[in-house]
Amino acid sequence: MKLLVTGGAGYVGSVCAARLVETGHDVVVVDDLTTGHADAVPEGARFVEADIAEAAAPLLAEGFDGVLHFAAKSLVGESMVDPSKYWSGNVLTSLRLLDAMRDTGTPRLVFSSTAATYGEPEVVPIVETAPTRPTNTYGASKLAIDHAITSYAKAHGLAAVSLRYFNVAGAYGRFGERHTTETHLIPIVLQVALGTRDKISIYGEDYPTADGTCVRDYIHVADLAEAHLLALEHAAKGEHQIYNLGTGTGFSNREVVQACREVTGHEIPADFAPRRAGDPAVLVASAEAATEHLGWTPERTDLRTIVADAWEFTRSRA
Ligand code: UFG
């Protein structure tokens, strides 16, 4: 298929673009490089450096079989202090993309949604029919886009799949996580192992969990990429399918730090800091729907494997 990958110079986007090229698709990456890196665009993909809101219509006029839409602002904390960046950057850009898809008759969309659309869950593991009550602007902006996609699918026959990622981690060869401002747990802990940070501060030790720290569902980025390939195949005209992508198993922040110690062989000093605003205690996915309908089964579910791949990537870039 000829596919437009927005945000293909970013973390998840670059891994998925690489897998799409490897599986024989004709890939065009569009990215404005505000958070992405030009050298993360995989060999074999055409790269267009541009603002997606501006570039979508002229690019799609070339004729594409589908779009994978990764490009987004994705920092929860930032979304609470600079909401405009999220409403404009995420929602307005996505609406321009959807209009361009409608106008050019581009048939398929795979959208990067997020577990943050659910907010604080009442029941864990989280199923797709759980209430969507985001606790931050990032999640609210992604949920707004999901609603828009539903109505475009109904009205214009778009074949759409939204994938709600839980905590993405790990790396795929030379493609990995390298944010200028790093806020995610595993990359920060690995920076401590590398010696570029003194310690990890764990936010909160009084959560209602077994060891008092938050619990998250870590999904290997390579498994996530496989779900995108399957979503492209299973997208159906006029339908908006939504799937959670996680492993169904949660690890506490303490367990993550311990796994990083074991994998890296470094001591990794840790202390405790107050809770971070907007952090739910437990976020664990039910991925049963993705397994049943997409035939997706995550294979790299061992936390040490995920951390080991992230560590190899981190060291290779040091
Ligand atoms: N954490 C720390 N110290 C740090 C950084 C993080 O203790 O220095 C903790 C957080 O408080 C949280 C856990 O590590 O308890 C995981 O935090 P991350 O920032 O790595 O990830 P989040 O769970 O906050 O968010 C991620 C994505 C979101 C997505 C969410 C879904 O960034 O886009 O997973 O689970 F919505």
Please explain how this structure is put together.
With 318 residues, this protein is of the alpha/beta class. The chain is built from ten helices and 14 strands. The strands form four sheets. It has a seven-stranded parallel beta sheet, with helices on both faces. A three-stranded mixed beta sheet has the order 12-9-14. Strands 7-10 form a two-stranded parallel ribbon. α6 (185-194) packs parallel to α8 (253-264). The longest helix is centred in the first third of the chain and has 22 residues, at 83-104. It is globular, with a radius of gyration of 19 Å. Bound molecules: uridine-5'-diphosphate-4-deoxy-4-fluoro-alpha-D-galactose. Residues 74, 76, 114-116, 166-167, 183-185, 188, 200-203, 214, 216, 253, 276, 279, 283 line the site of uridine-5'-diphosphate-4-deoxy-4-fluoro-alpha-D-galactose. The site of uridine-5'-diphosphate-4-deoxy-4-fluoro-alpha-D-galactose (UFG) has 21 residues, from α6 and β8.
Main β-sheet: number of strands, strand sense, barrel status? 7 strands, parallel
Number of helices: 10
Backbone CA Rg: 19 Å
**Intertermini distance:** 36 Å
Strand tally: 14
Which spans of ≥5 residues are poorly predicted at pLDDT below 50?
A: none
Mean pLDDT figure = 97
Order of helices and strands: EHEEHEHHEHEEHEEEHEEHEEHH
Small-molecule binders here are: uridine-5'-diphosphate-4-deoxy-4-fluoro-alpha-D-galactose
